[in-house]
Amino acid sequence: MSYKSPTSSVNVFKKPLPIFSKQPMTGFYRNGFCDTGAEDTGNHSIAAVVTDEFLDFSASRGNNLRSIGLTGGCKWCLCASRWREAMDARKSDNDPVVPKVFLHATHERALESLKMDDLKKFASEGEAANSSTTAQTPSSTSGSAIKEV
């Protein structure tokens, strides 16, 4: 996998894509951004905080993210299709199986397969009330540290 600079990448508001997490180092390119490109067939564009419920759900679908050291509370760039599966499987709008989304750090490519209204509905606290076209500063919570594998 080659490094790709996110300099021309934009978020769902058409603003420059900010770094999402370095601890753990996330993104398809493992550069901290939820950046994506043609070689990213999984569309790892959703900036979210994973929950234990989501990690269980993902493992039940064949992708055990715990095997790379993720725990509930970690910031991670998720595949748009897996996030949608979790959203579709939820029992209620408050079901923790659906990871909260950080819109400012979610790549615009997420909108190829998801509706903005759905992303806003599950936006992290602060972003939900503030989902506008202005880029926001990421929260100070960096999530749990990833274990070395």
Describe this structure in words.
The protein is of the alpha+beta class and 149 residues long. Helix content is 17%, strand content 7%. The chain has 3 helices and 3 strands, in the order βαβαβα. The radius of gyration is 14 Å and the shape is globular.
Based on secondary structure, the structural category is alpha+beta
Radius of gyration: 14 Å
Count of DSSP helices?
A: 3
Termini gap: 18 Å
Global shape = globular
Q: State the helical fraction.
A: 10-25%
Give me the side-by-side strand order of the main sheet: 2-1-3
Low-confidence stretches: 133-149
Characterize the biggest β-sheet.
3 strands, antiparallel
Mean pLDDT: 86
Q: In total, how many beta strands?
A: 3
Strand share of the residues? 5-15%
| SSE pattern | EHEHEH
